[in-house]
Amino acid sequence: MVFHDYALERLSEARGAICQRKADELASIRLRGGDETIPSLDEVLSIVGGRVPLLIEIKDQDGDMGTRGRAAGGGGRGRVARLWRAGGGHVVQPHSVAAIAGRLPDLPRGLTTSAYGEAGWPLLSAAVRERLRAIPDYDRVGASFISHEAADLANPRVAELAARGAAVLCWTIRTPEAEAQARRVAQNVTFEGYAAALPGA
User: Fold this and answer.
1) 73/47: higher pLDDT
2) What DSSP designation does 111 have?
3) I need a labelling partner for 4 at 20 to 30 A (CA). Which of 29, 42, 74, 92 fits?
C-alpha cells in the first residue's frame, strides 16, 4: 500500500498504525481532502504507466531500524522486488535496500538520511541515531544517491558523498523559498503544500 505516514490519522479518515490493517481494509479508507482511498503500489504504477521515474520508499516497520521488520525481506521480498523493477526506488531502511540489492543489483538505489535528532526519532536509541547520522550504509548497499533532511544539508558527510558522485535529494520542502535554498545543495526535492514550478519555468 502507498502511504507516507506510520499512522493513518494525518492523511486519512481512520486512526492507528497502517501496519495493523490488512490491504483490503486499507483500500476502503478515504484519504483526506478528496474521494480517493489508499492505493496499492500496483495501482500507482498502473496510473503512472512508466511515463516518469519513481522513487519508491520502503520505511522501517519495527521502530528501531533493525532487521525484524524489513519490508523487502521475508515472504514479501520477491513481490516488492518485482514492483520495484517497474518503478525504481529508494528506502529509508538500510536492511531493506540491502535485500533489494541482492535481488536487483542493476537497479539504482539510495537511502533516505537525516540528522537523526532525538525529537524527530524518539523510538531510536541514541546509539542507533549516532550511527545512522554518519550515513554508514551508503557503500554497503551500493547506493547512488541520498535523500537527506533539508535542515541538515550543510552536514559535511553530505558534501563528502556529493564529492564522490552521489546525487543529493532532500525532504521535506514546504515553500518555494525553502526550495530555492535547498537547491543550492540538492538536485531535487520532496515537497508538499505548494505547487512546485515545472523544470525550466
Assistant:
1) 47
2) E
3) 74
Give the contacts of 141 (CB within 8 A, at least 6 positions apart): 94, 97, 98, 101, 109, 111
199 falls in which pLDDT band (50, 70, 90)? low
Distances (CA, A) of 65 to 101, 127, 132: 17, 12, 9
Beta-carbon contacts of 196 under 8 Å, excluding residues fewer than 6 positions away, are 176, 179, 189
What backbone phi and psi angles, to 5 degrees, belong to 186? Answer: -90, 145
Task: Record the cell numbers describing residue 53, joined without a space.
Answer: 521515474
Angle, vertex CA 192, rays to CA 46 and CA 136, nearest 5: 85
Q: Where are the beta strands (DSSP E) in the chain?
A: 57-58, 90-91, 110-113, 145-149, 167-173, 188-191
Residue 127 DSSP label:
H
Q: What is the pLDDT of residues 98-134, one digit of tens each?
A: 777 777 777 788 899 999 999 988 888 999 999 999 9
Interatomic CA distance for residues 124 and 143, integer angstroms: 23
pLDDT of residue 36: 95
Distance CA 97, CA 141 (A): 6
